[in-house]
Amino acid sequence: MNSDTDNAFRLEDLPQSGLPLYRQSIDWEWYERQYSPPDVFAKTVYNWPAERIREMQNERFLSVVAQGWQNQFYSARWREAGLAPDDIRSLDDITRLPLFDSDDIKKSLERDPPYGDFHGVNSPHMQATPFKLQTSGGTTGLPRGTLSEPIAWETQALAGARAMYVQGARPGDVMQIPMTCSLANAPWLAYKACHDYLGVLPLTTGTGVVTATRQQLEFAFRYGTNLWTSFPEYLLRLASACETELDRDVRELNTKFIRSFLGPDLDGALRVELQERWGCPIYDTYGTHEVGTAGFECTHQTGMHLMEDCVYIEVVDVETGEPLPPGQQGNLVATVFFRSMPPVIRYNLRDLARIQPATACDCGSHFRRMSHMLGRSDAMVKLRGVNVYPMACLRAIKSDPRTTGEWICVVSRDRVDNVPRDVMEVRVEVRRTADSQDGLTELLTQRLREDLGVAVEVTLHDEGSLAELANTAGGEGKARRLLDQRKAGEGIL
User: Fold this and answer.
1) What CATH code is assigned to 380-484?
2) What is the Cα–Cα distance from 396 to 188, expressed in whole angstroms?
3) How many CB atoms lie within 10 A of CB 31?
4) Across-strand partners of 287?
5) In whole angstroms, how far apart are CA 2 and each of 9, 10, 50, 120?
6) Which range, of 148-157, 203-212, 281-290, 377-386, averages the lowest pLDDT?
7) Distances (CA, A) of 71 to 25, 67, 91, 116, 340
8) What is the H or E stretch that residue 41 is in?
9) Tens of pLDDT, residues 434-480
10) Pairing, β 457-462 against β 419-430
11) Is 0.70 surpassed by the pTM of this model?
12) Which of 286, 364, 283, 349 is nearest to 47 (CA)?
């Protein structure tokens, strides 16, 4: 009567869970056929001819447009533009759909808080589906939130894993992630890419504020970190701290590669400096929290391959929104194939870049390639009729070894002859070890005038003094290069 058999339960007798379990939210066999894992991807989709890629994109585009017609945010905008469902017959018709941007999302959130009609999500959805809320990780104001349902969350991570596999990540490697899994999407996705899709050990140390830089390095040496993902500013800080605090060379780690976000490194100086300090390749990455990894470098480092089976990228004129041909600089526009709540269809990211003419890479892939991200069009400042992008200061400031390479542009409004005029001060850090600052202000002023096309004021500051203002103190998020102190509501002259 008291035997083990009598006390044992049968699996079929257990009640079914009524909770929205994540593992049951995806048909995993279907999903893997749609979005192949890294090693399969590298042997198949990544090497498809351009014609086959286009066929796949066309099919997925029509599917996401059909979802858009079921979404109040899109259907209203599209009907207002005079469109009907039958008007969009292929990817060739994509330019007929109106663009939208982050301002439109903010208006949607205001109309219908907290998620807006943009997301197309209601209470039953939230109760039945395991969503993740992710924000933009913005440096000012309240960041906008974007929901990710399971397929979107998985695919964002998978895209990053594919990129790292192409770059050389393999099972048994150790990737250190000195970023905090909080507002920013990057550390979450790096962790998930390593853990779920690569067999790479993710070492999530958090930023330098969470785990001191010295300890970051001690962890790296102890656990054999051979891959990193972080921002350039913190990578340089790690290399310097390894020498000054541990009396070691960071190259002793024998790092295979580093996945970073170089931004507008126009002359390659930042990449060269990082590669020399670390003794390994630095691969540039482009992504957003709505898309995940949209572009990544292969080992040939000849531009970032677009993740063509996940997202379709266009380049449009900053002012008119009209499509631009390959090679011309404009705003990046994204249409995401794997998102349904919310769909993302012709989203003007307002990031400036160029798409290269379509040619096969030496790695064998026909995935299109884009340039470095050249800055943000909404960070542009007009000074005396000249469009100035703060990131265009990079080359001039990095050109003199007396600077730390850190800077921030401060824009304010002055009055000249009782006429308001916008002025820019470029604050530049100088190394403690600099023998002299003689002539540095004048030199940087001249070089910035040549690069920007307009005169700006240069002021010199002690090493480390701009860290908090420029958001470079702890390695969390992108550096801030523009501080706008102009009064709200005044026009730009």
Assistant:
1) 3.30.300.30
2) 34
3) 17
4) 293
5) 13, 16, 69, 56
6) 377-386
7) 21, 7, 19, 11, 9
8) helix 38-43
9) 889 999 999 999 999 998 888 999 999 999 899 888 877 665 567 78
10) parallel
11) yes
12) 364
Measuring CA to CA, how many Å separate 456 from each of 176, 379, 438, 472, 489?
39, 16, 19, 23, 23
For residue 313, list its beta bridge partners: 334
Q: Which of the 8 DSSP states describes residue 417?
A: T
Are 271 and 277 contacting, i.e. CB atoms less than 8 angstroms apart?
no
Task: Select from 376, 371, 360, 373 the least CA-distant residue to 409.
Answer: 376
Number of other residues whose CB lies within 10 A of the CB of residue 296: 24
Amino acid letter at 153? Answer: W
Do the domains spanning 14-376 and 380-484 agree at the CATH topology level?
Answer: no
Give per-residue pLDDT as tens, 280-302: 999 999 998 888 899 999 999 99
Q: How confident is the model at residue 384 (pLDDT cuts 50, 70, 90)?
A: confident
Q: Which residues contact 99 (CB under 8 A, 6 or more apart)?
A: 316, 321, 333, 346, 347, 348
Cβ partners under 8 Å of residue 115, min gap 6 = 109, 121, 145, 147
The token pair that represents 376 in the structure block:
């943000």
What would the two tokens of residue 232 be? 């350039």
Taking alpha carbons only, the member of 354, 351, 256, 352 closest to residue 303 is: 354
Whether residue 228 is predicted with pLDDT greater than 80 in this model: the reply is yes
Question: What is the length of the chain?
Answer: 493
- Written as one string, the DSSP assignment of 282-307 is EEEEEEETTTEEEEEE-TT-SSEEE-
pLDDT at 490 (0 to 100):
38
Q: What is the pLDDT of residue 493?
A: 32
State the chain's maximal CA–CA distance in angstroms: 102
Domain ranges of the chain: 14-376, 380-484
Cα dihedral angle (321, 326, 328, 330), rounded to 10 degrees? 40
How far lies 159's CA from each of 7, 198, 259, 287, 480, in Å? Answer: 47, 11, 13, 10, 26
Positive or negative: CA dihedral 335, 344, 379, 297: negative
Lookup: tokens for 234 = 């913190």
- CB of 332 within 8 A of CB of 351? yes
Structure tokens that stand for 281 in this block: 């390749």
Q: Specify the CATH number of the domain 14-376.
A: 3.40.50.12780
Backbone φ and ψ for 420, nearest 5 degrees, come out as -65, 140
Q: 422 versus 53: which is more confidently predicted?
A: 53
Helix (H), strand (E) at residue 353? strand 344-353
CA distances from 53 to 91, 136, 365, 436 (A): 12, 30, 11, 56
